[in-house]
Write a structure and sequence with these properties.
Two copies of one chain form a homodimer.
Chain A lengths: L10 H20 L7 H8 L3 H8 L2 H12 L12 H17 L1 H12 L5 H24 L6 H18 L6 H13 L5
């Protein structure tokens, strides 16, 4: 199973999605987000507003979809030869991306406009897949390792919680400490 | 220091805030949130729409403020006589409240409409204060205890991450396991 799946490429539905997503991206590069509207996005995408309303419901739901796609990792995590350094390199990059101004904007969009849990679940799924790749490498090397849910709970969750609620408290040094605490718990006592 | 601070009670500014917050609460009880608007809220609160725009900026920012106030704990955590059971009782209740449909709505509102980090920081501050009360009791009893940031990172953060991104994965049993993992790490090895 490939951990990184592309968007579907076939059919009219996929073409509409691509052009509407691209229009949102383009408009976000040109204007403040408060200026965005469904009619404006539709016009730029070359579709009718009712196509957008029918498919997404409204602007907030559309922004959530676009953000979930933008947060999709574009490569598997770097293979540094050991689990501790794999997790550290990945987590520091994750923190940097997610705590940046656009990263925070995307996370907020994903959460604010999610209907049900499709888009938030997709974001959690990205982290789970990236972590699983690193854990499989560790298993192949015979390294002791936590399971993916432990990594989510004790490394990804603290990063995301601080990014959303308390950004001053999360630094690359703190990420490094979280990785070491997590892996120290794996050693037989 | 009291961990629970009330809203300021004096002055015109506080009166406006109370009546506008109350109007939002009342309207949310009667209508779907998509029907809310600044003019409607202002009318119910007996203020002009421009008062609301001037003070809050817009509806999303107002909803964020109201949500941050609604998430304020109304009592210190129960004193059960031991840190493990204090944390467990508090965390299970926190999970129940935050993962409920209104709880999730409030968290989303806090995040979506926060200008800067005032309201999200306030929510993190509530958790920090409640946790600190339990840790101070543990210290008074001579129990070994993690510090408040460790409790935030390894108990509150996993709950909030799952509530926002992966609600099926967090249960009272999982909370119990998180509490025990956290406290087991405190015992001298």
């Amino acid at each position: 199973m490939s951990p990184i799946q592309g968007t579907r490429t076939g059919g009219r539905s996929a073409r509409v999605q691509r052009s509407v997503h691209a229009a949102v991206q383009e408009l976000l590069g040109q204007r403040s987000r408060s200026e965005l509207s469904v009619p404006l996005v539709a016009q730029h995408a070359g579709v009718t507003p009712s196509t957008v309303y029918r498919r997404w419901g409204g602007l907030q739901e559309l922004l959530s979809d676009v953000a979930a796609e933008r947060l999709r990792p574009d490569a598997p995590p770097e293979d540094t030869g050991a689990l501790a350094s794999d997790l550290n390199a990945w987590a520091v990059q994750y923190l940097e991306e997610m705590s940046s101004s656009p990263g925070r904007e995307y996370i907020r969009d994903v959460i604010a406009g999610d209907t049900g849990t499709a888009n938030t679940g997709q974001c959690c799924g990205y982290a789970y897949e990236q972590v699983s790749v690193m854990l499989q490498r560790a298993a192949d090397r015979g390294e002791p390792a936590p399971d993916a849910d432990q990594v989510l709970d004790h490394l990804v969750a603290p990063m995301m919680y601080r990014i959303l609620f308390d950004p001053a408290q999360i630094t690359p040094e703190r990420v490094d400490a979280l990785v070491h605490e997590l892996l120290d718990d794996q050693h037989p006592s």
